[in-house]
């Protein structure tokens, strides 16, 4: 059983869960079901902090609500520990896909770092194949249940290690076997994309899509490096692009904002922002603006015309789903179905798919919202 994720959330009387959705920023090791962690841990004699699924879900939520990305990331020690075997990886990937489909997602991209799953003796190729097997099993199970979903892998390198070129080559190797893009993740502050220039040069030479975690734990310099050194087509989070906005006047409810050169570039080039509202609160990414969802610059960025998308980041740690994130935003900023559709269309346009596939996805979303 997956985590409770606001089954009854509605906007204008319509179930958000039943609307077709696109998930772009969703970590595999951040979406492991608590009951699966307990069962896999028992199989390898690994001690867990709680042996009841509900209590373990509470443990993740409490530990993750620290206001620090570094502390937030420590909770992944447990999830990655049960993902060191082919069986564990395949099961987690299969359930990941099933949970996405249950949340109404029709297209998803799952990001994960193969280099973190080698402790059981598997090779980099072994772990990617195991995850792909799980994804395909999940897609088959969803189809058998009468729904459709497609999920692609974002092969991720850890920014504080020195394996990024090796992982980039791995991603390209699997581009016809499930890999749709590349990412770097992990501690952002002090580890800019510039440190991995060789990997990004290689990916550019292979015309392989890149998204980069930036503008979460670090500010504008991180975003600048992601765009210049990483040639990022999307920004993982990117919420701190709001630091390059200056409110110059207010007239009633109208706010007049001046954009800096970086913010204007991101907006005018429609570089997608992979915003994750609940996670951004938990990690302190928006602390300079406040500590409540209403303080999140999401709505300001949306109103200014940035290509905002809505994401979960880590479903287990944030005890969330895409349905819940959309429900929270709708409640906080009084969004209607048209707004929620705009977020999904932005995500569909940003997907690492061919033009034809993105057009089909956009049509699928438009039809679903029209119904």
From TrEMBL:
The record's annotation in Pfam families points to: A_deaminase (PF00962)
Q: What is its EC number?
A: 3.5.4.4
The domain of life for this entry's organism is Bacteria
Q: Where is the Adenosine deaminase domain?
A: 20-366
Keywords from UniProt, A to Z, are: Hydrolase, Metal-binding, Zinc
- Annotated Gene Ontology MF terms? hydrolase activity
Does Membrane appear among the keywords?
no
Q: Which cofactor does it need?
A: Zn(2+)
UniProt lists the family membership as follows: Belongs to the metallo-dependent hydrolases superfamily. Adenosine and AMP deaminases family.
Tell me the PANTHER family matching this sequence.
ADENOSINE DEAMINASE (PTHR11409)
What is the name of this protein? adenosine deaminase
Q: Which organism is it from?
A: Microbacterium pullorum
What phylogenetic lineage does the species belong to?
Bacteria, Bacillati, Actinomycetota, Actinomycetes, Micrococcales
């Amino acid at each position: 059983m997956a985590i409770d994720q606001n089954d009854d959330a509605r906007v204008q009387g319509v179930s958000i869960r039943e609307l077709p959705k696109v998930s772009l920023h969703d970590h595999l090791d951040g979406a492991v079901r608590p009951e699966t962690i307990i069962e896999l841990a028992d199989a390898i004699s690994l001690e867990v902090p709680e042996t009841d699924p509900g209590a373990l879900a509470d443990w993740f939520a409490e530990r993750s609500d620290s206001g620090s990305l570094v502390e937030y990331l420590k909770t992944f020690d447990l999830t990655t520990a049960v993902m060191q075997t082919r069986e564990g990886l395949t099961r987690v990937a299969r359930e990941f896909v099933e949970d996405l489909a249950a949340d109404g997602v029709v297209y998803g991209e799952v990001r994960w770092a193969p280099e973190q799953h080698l402790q059981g003796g598997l090779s980099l190729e072994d772990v990617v194949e195991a995850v792909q097997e799980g994804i395909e099993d999940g897609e088959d199970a969803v189809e058998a249940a009468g729904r459709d979903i497609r999920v692609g892998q974002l092969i991720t390198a850890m920014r504080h290690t020195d394996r990024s070129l090796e992982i980039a080559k791995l991603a390209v190797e699997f581009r016809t076997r499930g890999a749709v893009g590349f990412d770097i993740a992990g501690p952002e502050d002090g580890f800019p994309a510039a440190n991995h220039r060789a990997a990004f040069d290689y990916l550019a030479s292979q015309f392989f899509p890149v998204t980069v975690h930036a503008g979460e734990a670090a500010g504008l310099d991180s975003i600048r490096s992601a765009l210049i050194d990483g040639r990022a087509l999307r920004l993982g989070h990117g919420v701190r692009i709001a630091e390059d906005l200056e409110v110059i006047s207010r007239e009633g409810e109208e706010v007049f904002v001046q954009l800096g050169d970086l913010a204007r570039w991101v907006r005018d080039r429609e570089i997608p922002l992979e915003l994750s509202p609940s996670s951004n609160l938990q990690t302190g990414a928006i602390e300079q603006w406040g500590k409540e969802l209403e303080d999140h610059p999401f709505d300001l960025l949306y109103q200014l015309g940035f290509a905002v998308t809505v994401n979960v980041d880590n479903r287990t740690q944030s005890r969330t789903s895409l349905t819940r994130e959309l429900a929270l935003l709708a409640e906080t900023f009084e969004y209607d179905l048209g707004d929620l559709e705009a977020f999904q269309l932005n995500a569909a346009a940003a997907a690492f798919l061919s033009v034809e596939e993105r057009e089909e996805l956009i049509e699928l979303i438009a039809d679903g919202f029209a119904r």
